[in-house]
Amino acid sequence: MNDTNSNPVRKIIHVDMDAFYASVEQRDNPELRGKPLAVGGSAARGVVAAASYEARAFGVHSAMPSVTAKRKCPDLIFVPPRFDVYRAVSQQIREIFAEYTPMIEPLSLDEAYLDVTQNLKGMDIATEIALEIRSRIKQVTGLNASAGISYNKFLAKMASDLNKPNGQAVITPKNGPAFVETLPVKKFHGVGPATAERMHKYGIDTGLDLKSKSLAFLQEHFGKAGPHFYGIARGIDERQVKPDRVRKSIGAEDTFTEDIDDLELATAELRPLAQKVWRYCETGGISARTVTVKIKYSDFTQATRSRTSPFPMTNASDILEAASALLASAHPFTRPIRLLGITLSSLTNEEADDGQSQSQLDFGI
Question: What is the pLDDT of residue 1?
């Protein structure tokens, strides 16, 4: 690995929109401003997709069951998501990024990495670029963005959380390793709860603890992720910003208000899922050869069934037909079904006729 003083030092910005879905809703409906808001379903099995900062003050956060969120914040207002609007705003933001650099790696609708080492404005200071981009986003969309600036992706991502909302922070090559040493590993981007718990069992609670472990130890206990953990413990992350990142799969799923044990009723629930994933395909000008159906039963156990076609599927009906056959292969159901999902993989743009790239779709989901 190269040390942190390698030349030239890269300039990476991680831009992260603040409470994106909720902020769009508050922007478009003045009556929602300043109020605790959750984007998502309020039904018994609904889930919070996003929460405003007013709601976060009560402990409400994304992926939280709606009933839990309502219990934490009795005055919480639920609004249904409008993904078409979020995608349109996301595209506006992407166009602003493109004014500064073609080196854009979208991670989701509301965040992306930018490599501005060489940039279209000829600006030398990355912090000034980040300030300009955030100002332009505010001007064009009316929304706030936060940013992290550093010499690699890991630290830029960590920096973007330091001064949220509507702020930015810099982690320099000089202070990067020291910053990592004091950080709890559970706050490391890329270290989920299960991995953090495993690290805890080995006495790894902070970046300094992680740094004390040898590469051989980390490879033995964390496999392919071992070298990455070894590097980031030292403030080193050599991953490049990849503007052509190709999405490997597209999925949609739905949790039912009541469990389903009838094949005909369950099959009917596949139709809107097939239509949704096909809309994503149309947006990106791509198609898929593999369909996977996910089945989650009432006891939360899961099963999947997959089928790969020799030719790309060209419409929602093809997807629905394949998914329906896969679901039928799991019948009779051993338990009632609480959730169904459809995932498309083996993606290709060979059938596209509008010239759009897969990376466009990646930013639009």
Answer: 41
Residues annotated as catalytic are: 111
Residue with token string 């718990």:
197
Is the overall model pTM greater than 0.90, yes or no?
no
The 10 Å Cβ neighbour count of residue 193 is: 8
Q: How far apart are CA 67 and CA 74, in angstroms?
A: 10
Ranges of H-type helices in 117-236: 126-141, 153-160, 176-182, 193-201, 207-211, 215-222, 226-232
Q: Do the Cβ atoms of 353 and 288 come closer than 8 Å?
A: no
The pLDDT mean for the chain works out to 88
Strands (E), the chain: 12-17, 37-40, 48-51, 77-79, 104-108, 111-115, 145-150, 168-171, 249-260, 287-297, 302-313, 337-348
Residues 6+ apart with CB under 8 A from 296: 255, 302, 337, 338, 339, 340, 341
Handedness of CA 184, 235, 106, 57 (dihedral sign): positive
Q: Are strands 77-79 and 37-40 parallel, antiparallel or unpaired?
A: parallel
Cα–Cα separations (whole angstroms), residue 164 to 35, 53, 80: 18, 10, 25
Q: Is the peptide bond before 30 cis (omega within 30 degrees of 0)?
A: no
